[in-house]
Amino acid sequence: MKKDVLIMFLGAFTMLVPFMGFPSTWDTIILLVAGVLTIALGIAVRRGNRPRASFPVFRRSESSGSTEQHA
Protein backbone atom coordinates (compact mmCIF):
# COMPACT_ATOMS: atom_id res chain seq x y z
CA MET A 1 0.00 0.00 0.00
CA LYS A 2 1.30 3.48 -0.80
CA LYS A 3 2.33 5.82 1.99
CA ASP A 4 -0.17 8.52 1.05
CA VAL A 5 -3.03 6.00 1.23
CA LEU A 6 -1.82 4.88 4.66
CA ILE A 7 -1.86 8.50 5.81
CA MET A 8 -5.49 8.85 4.69
CA PHE A 9 -6.54 5.62 6.46
CA LEU A 10 -4.66 6.67 9.59
CA GLY A 11 -6.44 10.04 9.51
CA ALA A 12 -9.83 8.35 9.23
CA PHE A 13 -8.91 5.98 12.06
CA THR A 14 -7.81 8.92 14.21
CA MET A 15 -11.12 10.63 13.53
CA LEU A 16 -13.10 7.54 14.60
CA VAL A 17 -11.13 6.59 17.75
CA PRO A 18 -13.10 8.86 20.14
CA PHE A 19 -16.36 7.18 19.06
CA MET A 20 -15.15 3.58 19.50
CA GLY A 21 -15.87 3.44 23.23
CA PHE A 22 -12.35 2.82 24.52
CA PRO A 23 -11.47 4.05 28.02
CA SER A 24 -9.96 7.52 28.17
CA THR A 25 -6.44 6.24 28.83
CA TRP A 26 -6.60 3.91 25.82
CA ASP A 27 -7.90 6.76 23.65
CA THR A 28 -4.91 8.86 24.66
CA ILE A 29 -2.42 6.10 23.90
CA ILE A 30 -4.06 5.18 20.57
CA LEU A 31 -4.18 8.81 19.44
CA LEU A 32 -0.54 9.32 20.49
CA VAL A 33 0.58 6.29 18.46
CA ALA A 34 -1.56 7.36 15.48
CA GLY A 35 -0.04 10.85 15.63
CA VAL A 36 3.52 9.52 15.71
CA LEU A 37 2.77 7.19 12.78
CA THR A 38 1.23 10.06 10.82
CA ILE A 39 4.32 12.20 11.38
CA ALA A 40 6.65 9.33 10.42
CA LEU A 41 4.69 8.59 7.23
CA GLY A 42 4.61 12.30 6.36
CA ILE A 43 8.39 12.48 6.69
CA ALA A 44 8.78 9.33 4.60
CA VAL A 45 6.57 10.77 1.85
CA ARG A 46 8.47 14.05 1.89
CA ARG A 47 11.84 12.29 1.66
CA GLY A 48 10.56 10.13 -1.17
CA ASN A 49 9.57 13.20 -3.22
CA ARG A 50 12.91 15.00 -2.78
CA PRO A 51 15.11 15.03 -5.90
CA ARG A 52 18.40 13.18 -5.56
CA ALA A 53 21.76 14.91 -5.98
CA SER A 54 22.76 14.65 -9.62
CA PHE A 55 26.51 14.82 -9.07
CA PRO A 56 28.64 12.31 -7.16
CA VAL A 57 30.99 13.48 -4.43
CA PHE A 58 33.61 10.93 -5.41
CA ARG A 59 34.14 10.14 -9.06
CA ARG A 60 36.53 7.62 -10.56
CA SER A 61 38.84 9.09 -13.16
CA GLU A 62 38.72 7.10 -16.40
CA SER A 63 42.39 7.62 -17.33
CA SER A 64 44.29 6.98 -14.09
CA GLY A 65 41.94 4.63 -12.25
CA SER A 66 42.30 6.62 -9.04
CA THR A 67 39.53 8.23 -7.04
CA GLU A 68 39.36 12.01 -7.09
CA GLN A 69 37.34 14.20 -4.75
CA HIS A 70 35.32 17.01 -6.32
CA ALA A 71 33.98 19.95 -4.36
Describe the structure.
The protein has helices spanning 3-16, 24-49; strands at residues 58-60, 67-69. It has 71 residues and is mostly helical. The chain has a two-stranded antiparallel sheet. Helix 1 runs antiparallel to helix 2 (24-49).
How would you summarize what this structure contains?
The protein is 56% helix and 8% strand. The chain has two helices and two strands.
Name some characteristics of this structure.
71 residues, mainly alpha, 2 helices, 2 strands, rod-shaped
**Proportion of residues in β-strands:** 5-15%
Structural class: mainly alpha
Q: Largest beta sheet: what is the strand line-up? A: 1-2
- Rg calculated over all Cα atoms: 22 Å
Instruction: Give the N-to-C terminal Cα separation.
Output: 40 Å
Number of strands: 2
Order of helices and strands: HHEE
Q: Round the mean pLDDT to the nearest integer and report it.
A: 82
**SS summary, helix count:** 2
Stretches where pLDDT is under 50 for at least 5 consecutive residues are: none
Shape: rod-shaped
**Helicity level:** 55-70%
